[in-house]
Amino acid sequence: MVINAGGKGTRLDPYTKVLPKPLIPVGDLPIIEHIMREYLSYSCDEFHIIVNYKKDLMKAYFADNDNHYNITWYDEEKPLGSGGGLSLLRGKFDSTFFFANCDALLTANYESMINFHKENNNVITMMCAYKNINIPYGVVDIGANGSIKEMREKPLMSFLTNTGIYIVEPEVIDDIEDGVPMGFPDIIELERKKGKKVAVFPVSESDWMDMGQLPELEKMRIKLYGE
């Protein structure tokens, strides 16, 4: 399990002026520990964590943690984006691994995800959640010369959204340049253009919890701990 935990978490300002985003508490535990416990429930107990912003606080927290997680740390010398930090792990893996941002938690079946990834011979499988959004207005589609093609009153729009959680083959790391900032979606595009198999594993919206913004942080707490 690889966790990208190096970002500044500006969407959670002002909390992240004090703590790095992975240590923001959700109930009794910081978000990163909730994530790690979910993987431990599937016997995934080897953690590789990429750090940068307030990394000493991160390391200090786990140094004093009674659970003694099996963690290997990777220090970014400069911010490398949501994917570029994987270059620090070159040569470390010879088998499939999970890769996730430190602000998203899935409660779906991880075994099913791995089986799908392996059966389809993917190099990357992206976990995507269905997101339903109610548009609180009447929506109008127009044609030529402003003619009305269709009108829909307060439609429900459904999208597949990237959760920031992936299953990755180690060969992908070899395609990432050292020290070059890069988003992981850009890495996915790079692999697609090379003709490699990249696919989506859909999960329910209810299985995905994201704390990237303050309102979502409270929703996550309620889902994990109740009102």
Structure overview:
The model has no long low-confidence stretch (mean pLDDT 88). Helix 3 (55-63) links the parallel strand 4 (46-51) and strand 5 (70-75). With 227 residues, the chain is α/β, with parallel strands linked by helices. The chain is globular, with a radius of gyration of 19 Å. The protein has a single domain, classed as Spore Coat Polysaccharide Biosynthesis Protein SpsA, Chain A. It has helices at 15-18, 31-40, 55-63, 81-84, 110-119, 184-193, 214-225; strands at residues 2-5, 25-26, 29-30, 46-51, 70-75, 97-101, 104-106, 124-134, 138-142, 148-153, 156-168, 198-203, 208-210. The strands form four sheets. It has a seven-stranded mixed β-sheet.
Helices and strands in order:
Layout lengths: L1 E4 L9 H4 L6 E2 L2 E2 H10 L5 E6 L3 H9 L6 E6 L5 H4 L12 E5 L2 E3 L3 H10 L4 E11 L3 E5 L5 E6 L2 E13 L15 H10 L4 E6 L4 E3 L3 H12 L2
Parallel strand pairs: 1-4, 1-6, 4-5, 8-12
Antiparallel strand pairs: 2-3, 6-11, 7-13, 8-11, 9-10
Quick summary of this structure?
Helices cover 26% and strands 32% of the residues.
Count the domains.
1
**Shape assignment:** globular
Q: What gyration radius follows from the Cα positions, in whole Å?
A: 19 Å
Report the major sheet. 7 strands, mixed
CATH topology name: Spore Coat Polysaccharide Biosynthesis Protein SpsA, Chain A
**Class inferred from helices and paired strands:** alpha/beta
Helix content: 25-40%
Within the largest sheet, what's the order of strands? 5-4-1-6-11-8-12
Beta strand %: 25-35%
List the helices and strands in order: EHEEHEHEHEEHEEEEHEEH
SS element count, helices:
7
CATH class: Alpha Beta
Mean pLDDT: 88
CATH architecture: Alpha-Beta Complex
Distance between the amino and carboxyl termini: 31 Å
